[in-house]
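Q: Second attempt. The first request was missing the SMILES, so the protein and zinc ion are both included now.
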Amino acid sequence: MRSSAEDVLEYLIVKILAGKDNIVNALADYFIYGESPSVIALKYGLSKHQVRGYAQRIVEKIGSATKAKALLKYAIPVITKIRPVTKKLNGSFVKCVLCGDELPIQIIEDHIRKKHAVVVEEYLYSTIDLIRRSIAMESN
Ligand SMILES: [Zn+2]
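A: Got both inputs this time. The predicted holo structure:
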């Protein structure tokens, strides 16, 4: 069974792979820096409602905003270095560079999670490893 922290990491990794780094950065500003949803919305081209919605998803997965903050503090520097596996095409379509499929942007995360589960898993484990190392370095 996967832990709730792993669920959050996987959620963020899939967003990055899908090219939605603005959402991950918005969540970092919300949880780590305590920015208001309206400021974040303007900065990342989202609506206040979307910012609250994404934050709510994280809290539901991990249990509290405090836990989310603790995890994201370590996870964000690692996860934001992951390169996307999508290329924007015209309009609302993206190309998955892993398999060449061209898909509507609405379903790209689902596509990555299902068709490229192995890639997501590899990033998940390397992310967990790097987080463990940075925590170990801090406590030395
Ligand atoms: Zn693909």
